[in-house]
Amino acid sequence: MSLLGTAASAAEKRLHLRAGLESGQLQRFPGAFSPLVAKLVAEIGFDGVYVSGAVLAADLGLPDIGLTTLTEVATRGAQIASATDLPTLVDADTGFGEPMSAARTVTVLEDAGLAGLHLEDQVNPKRCGHLDGKAVVETAEMVKRLRAAVSARRDPNFVICARTDAAGIEGLSAAIDRAKAYADAGADLIFTEALRTRADFERFRAAVQTPLLANMTEFGKSELLSARQLSDIGYNVVIYPVTTLRLAMFAVEAGLREIESVGTQSDLLDRMQHRSRLYELLRYADYNQFDSDVFNFVLQEAQR
């Protein structure tokens, strides 16, 4: 990671993601709600960064019901992707409109430096994948959405992932049939949303040859399987989309309530990231050295 940008180009990050999908090793992508969190994801040693649509909406104070725009997603996605040398996968909802909109979404997010995106087969406006009352479009309509997206891709290594929400609506067999159709339409990766049990994940893996992504979100419909379990089943990617936001918001709420009731934060210091740790993560010392190397001149007295 270079000081003022990433050492890896967007193209190199996409190659890295492709290699990960083909490695036979489970790729772990925690969600990052900010570039700073992405830096921590990279430092700890994960394989990639995920940008959740639900988290982006929540960060804007909105529910996850399709209210965010392509511009908002692209802007935040670009900021997060630029923070590390890891590949970043972004949630692109339903593509923000008709198939032509999905095509434009690919070009915009590709230009923003993302390594890949996922599109889902819900109707517009979409809703959180772990809520009841979802509806999915016909398979043929989602195939059009995907074909449009694939046709717009300029970098062949930009990953297009197809998410199906059909398991909880039409049943697991129908979701498997959709996954196969989406792979035939050009999807590089299949996101199996809201499967309930390990047996469901195993059945999906046995039926579909395309690389698979598992969503291990908390408080949802899916059993929380470990990375080892998902690896043993044969999944290729696991995302933890909202985990970091939930951890942060729990701590923020507890801290604010204590300040409001007690009148000081003095008893919270051992629950805070220390200033020195933040500076370490942000590489303050390296920036200071950079300043010293560049701004090493001395102002002379002005000539009369």
From TrEMBL:
Its EC number is 4.1.3.30. One of its GO terms (molecular function) is methylisocitrate lyase activity. Keywords: Lyase, Magnesium, Metal-binding. SUPFAM superfamilies: Phosphoenolpyruvate/pyruvate domain. Pathway: Organic acid metabolism; propanoate degradation. Pfam families: PEP_mutase. It is an enzyme of class 4 (lyase). It catalyses: (2S,3R)-3-hydroxybutane-1,2,3-tricarboxylate = pyruvate + succinate. One of its GO terms (biological process) is propionate catabolic process, 2-methylcitrate cycle. Belongs to the isocitrate lyase/PEP mutase superfamily. Methylisocitrate lyase family. PANTHER family: CARBOXYVINYL-CARBOXYPHOSPHONATE PHOSPHORYLMUTASE, CHLOROPLASTIC (PTHR42905:SF5), PHOSPHOENOLPYRUVATE CARBOXYLASE (PTHR42905). This is Methylisocitrate lyase. It comes from Mycolicibacterium canariasense (Mycobacterium canariasense).
